[in-house]
Write a structure and sequence with these properties.
The structure holds two protein chains of two kinds. Chain A has 14 helices and two strands, in the order αααααααββααααααα. By secondary structure, chain A is mostly helical. Chain B is built from six helices and two strands, in the order E-E-H-H-H-H-H-H. Classes of the chains: A mainly alpha, B mainly alpha.
């Protein structure tokens, strides 16, 4: 059986409920958000452990703040990891499932490793105290290592996926097959580093945004914040420069026949990356002023890089005649409309608690919401109830209809 | 009752599509598998096991068991519903009896029918009997 036929055989014969381009765009967008929080989590867990080792002064205080900031970033990384996972399963199902089955023990182990790392970030944050010995930093460091390990497993699963021509040889063992799923088969260091090195740059950016966020609060030490912002800008610049070098290394490690350096998606992403580096260079002089703009530009760069990643994947899978745009479509407008409504309503509803958290953190003492914000909250609550009624109602109607 | 399906009245627990869904343009796989053979249509089969010979019969049988049985039965002695224990419980001592149990599977309410050619059924039967030691 040739690889192209194998991939077709593994596709879901039911088809997909809407045109593939929708799944592709949503996959790329949600992956960009996911990897940003992954980078924040890795970077912050690293610098919170590093700060603890450095002692009680400036770095110690920062370690406390960063250990606290690691936990919500880890939960957002996990939360936003689900969406691209689901989209990749929809349009790249032959690849994703085969790769997962080949390393099933690790695909499941990933969850345990992640849970352990996530749990340790809470222990590090909640038990944090100046009286603890240097050994306490090991808890923070271990959570960083576990997150890195989890990232390595995801990298392997994502990289095995791109090489369907090797699946059978990985599976066949002597006269039989290896159905244990305990092996990891493919690892590409520059690709892995290209996902991981930005973690440190993003931690630097986080420090810049942290300083910018608290700068107008009268109860915060402006001098301390200036130092944090300066350190953040330096870290962000250095690791973005390193990322550029890793990027070149990774580019040269790609199969030359792809000619990926001529790909428009890659070129846009590369230009954005270089301009981010330039921007961060300027930002070192006035990190408060550049923080938000650099943050926005960094996210747009990650977004462009995510598109480039998908463009590269189409090259890999295109070798066997696979294209998600050939996927069988069984148009289901109802479920697609429900999904998109949920998405839009969900973003709107979440905007309220996010805004309140943002505004209250910027206020010294107790935060009092304005009448407009109160109204916004009431509208969100009403929308949430309406959405629950619509979804639950629809479910009940369909279930009853199915049995009549 | 859900068994023997993973998706009711459509896909068996071993992911073989048992029944067509014309509205979605999905054909049943069973007839094709019975005609061409499970070892021919499955993607993850080593090439040398695609055709059954006297030399590879037990390995081919084991491959079929992996594809069609292992969703519910482990092939080892311990774990979830181990095949060796099932074989001993049913006292499958020769391939004819094992083959007729496989033929009778379509009458079991909670197990999918065997899918494959007669040669493949014989190979699976031989593998099952080999577990009865």
């Amino acid at each position: 059986m040739d690889v192209g036929t194998m991939l077709k055989t593994l596709q879901d014969p039911m088809g997909i409920p809407f045109y593939p381009v929708l799944f592709q765009i949503l996959m790329v967008i949600t992956f960009a958000v996911h990897i940003m929080f992954v980078n924040f989590t890795l970077g912050l867990s690293f610098f919170s452990a590093y700060g603890f080792v450095r002692g009680n002064g400036y770095w110690g205080g920062l370690s406390r703040s960063l250990s606290k900031a690691t936990t919500p970033n880890a939960s957002l990384a996990i939360l936003f990891g689900i969406a691209p996972l689901l989209f990749v399963q929809v349009v790249y199902d032959p690849f994703w499932y085969a790769s997962n089955m080949l390393s099933a023990a690790w695909a499941l182990g990933f969850i345990l490793i992640l849970m352990l790392g996530y749990g340790l970030t809470y222990i590090f944050y909640l038990k944090w105290g100046p009286g603890r010995g240097a050994g306490f930093a090991a808890i923070g460091a271990l959570s960083f290592v576990l997150f890195l390990f989890a990232g390595a497993i995801m990298h392997v699963l994502g990289y095995q996926l791109l090489q369907p021509e090797k699946w059978l040889q990985w599976y066949v063992e002597g006269n039989g097959v290896d159905a244990s799923g305990t092996s990891l088969h493919a690892f590409q260091l520059p690709r892995f580093l290209h996902f991981m090195v930005p973690s440190f740059a993003m931690a630097g950016l986080f420090l810049m945004l942290y300083a910018w966020y608290f700068k107008d609060r009268p109860d915060r030490d402006r001098e301390h914040l200036a130092r944090v912002a300066g350190a953040g800008a330096g870290i962000a610049f250095f690791f973005t420069a390193l990322q550029a070098i890793v990027g070149v290394w990774w580019l040269f490690s790609l199969p030359p026949e792809f000619r990926f350096f001529t790909n428009p998606f890659f070129l846009i992403a590369a230009v954005m990356g270089v301009s981010l580096l330039f921007y961060l260079y300027l930002g070192r002089k006035d990190p408060f002023r550049y923080a938000v703009r650099a943050g926005v530009w960094a996210f747009l760069t990650i977004f462009a890089m995510s598109f480039a990643r998908e463009a590269l994947r189409t090259k890999y899978v295109g070798r066997f005649g696979y294209s998600i745009f050939d996927y069988k479509v069984n148009l289901d407008l109802g479920s697609t409309a429900l999904f998109l409504c949920t998405f839009i309503v969900g973003v709107f509803i979440v905007s309220y608690p996010v805004y309140v958290a943002y505004a209250s953190g910027r206020t010294a003492g107790q935060y009092a919401a304005s009448p407009a914000v109160h109204k916004w909250g009431s509208v969100c609550l009403a929308l949430l109830l309406l959405w629950i009624a619509a979804v639950a109602g629809l479910g009940i109607v369909i279930s009853v209809k199915n049995y009549l | 009752m859900r068994k023997p399906y993973v998706i009711s009245s459509y896909m068996y627990s071993n992911q073989i599509i048992g029944h067509a869904i014309p509205a979605k343009g999905v054909k049943a796989e069973r007839d094709r598998i019975n005609e061409e053979g499970i070892l021919r249509v499955s993607p993850f089969v080593p090439e040398r096991l695609r055709t059954i010979t006297d030399g590879n019969r037990l390995q081919a049988g084991r491959m079929i068991a992996l594809i069609e049985c292992s969703a519910c039965h482990v092939l080892d002695n311990t774990g979830l519903r181990p095949l060796p224990q099932m074989v001993k419980k049913l006292n499958l001592t020769n391939t004819e009896i094992a083959g007729s149990v496989l033929t009778a599977l379509h009458g079991f309410p909670y197990m999918p029918p065997f899918a494959g050619t007669e040669t493949e059924k014989a190979a699976l039967a031989a593998f099952l009997v080999s577990l009865n030691r």
